[in-house]
Amino acid sequence: MEIWVNPACSKCRSAVSMLDEAGAEYTVRKYLEEPPTAKELKAVLKRLGLEPWDITRTAEPIAKELELKTWGRTPADRDRWIEALATHPKLIQRPIITADDGTTVVGRTPEAVQSVLPD
Q: Residues 38-81: pLDDT tens digits?
């Protein structure tokens, strides 16, 4: 299992605590220090069943600077969004957890984190 975290994020710390309490084996990726590539983002989005704009933090200052709220949200716009996420990882919603079976969630709620824990 891998979890993408920003250590300054309370939701990330909470998710890590839940994984620890469950005795889950996982790897932490501090995605601001080791940003995902466009290829990795595409793979995660496929597993999530989401589009890049669905995991974008549009209230971040860089989002306002880029005027993301004005960007299109069509298949033709997808690569532009993915490139923005790869270039500016602060825009990525967190934490993202990928379980060993490929199940992937944005772990912002206890229920989402619970869903990837082994039985």
A: 999 999 999 999 999 999 999 999 999 999 999 999 999 999 99
DSSP calls for 16-28:
HHHHHHTT---EE
Q: Give the domain range for residue 114.
A: 1-31+94-119
pTM of the model: 0.92
Total number of domains constituting the chain: 2
Q: Quick check: is 12 catalytic?
A: no
How much is the CA Rg of the chain, to the nearest whole Å? 14
Catalytic annotation, pick one of 9, 50, 66, 117: 9
Q: Is the domain of 112 the same as that of 101?
A: yes
